[in-house]
Amino acid sequence: MSRIISVVSGKGGVGKTTLTSNLGIVLNKLGKKTLVVDGNITTPNISLHLGIPLYPITIHDVLRGDAHISEAIYDHPTGLSIVPGSISIDDLNKINMDKLSESLNYLKKQADIILLDSPAGLGKESLKSIEVANDIIIVTNPNMPSAVEALKIKEIAERMNKNILGVVINRVNDKKSELSEKEIKNMLELPILTKIPEDSVVPLSIGNKIPVVHFDPFSPSSKAINKFGADLVGKEFEMKEFGFFQRIMTWLRR
Ligand code: ADP
Ligand code: MG
Fold it and tell me: Is the Cα dihedral 8, 154, 222, 110 positive or negative?
């Protein structure tokens, strides 16, 4: 049975789009046909993370009723399927968010896993992305403001009777000033799915328009996302080490 997993957060900028785009690539590589959908309608940016900002037909056309969702599916060079958003502000007119669930239901027939990159906060779009999901992944950073907002999202998802898989703590530095994994677990009363370290390669990879799991597969964040993907689909995590030449090439790209 295919599932729609929404990647959500209370606070913005915690790493949802970074996680969604990279996790999509990892899951696809693990043999699960994965489709990443930009559910961040007001400020879509998954296509920027994936390095292809301009698509002729987007989720915006679909939500406006000008196209069928099947026309908005594209193949990323990694093999991942993607339904991008439009980065043009003109495309924000006449959007009907109620069309999202019927579109996603169609997509369920096309993929094993649909990852929905959601906007932050408690606005209409965010609530919709929770409503349409089978499962929820909550992303937070290890600080009080984002954990408090994560708690609000958790409560909303629970009120909607959604299955919350747990919490991803992103940008972990293991500094004393940070909330620890235990503190976040106790506060949110949810399983901690993974901790992704703060990794200077992440902004570099976004700048280069190559998702970090490709840009530098052996960076700390890539390893964490690869392991998380394997855990999610119940597979053993294994990463073959790069040969000398590949290591030099990866280093030169930095
Ligand atoms: P959101 O989708 O939640 O708004 P993004 O995925 O766009 O957040 O990430 C916001 C910024 O945080 C990005 O510019 C990215 O460079 C940075 N970032 C995300 N994850 C990490 C990480 N693990 N290490 C370092 N920087 C990160
Ligand atoms: Mg985002």
Answer: negative
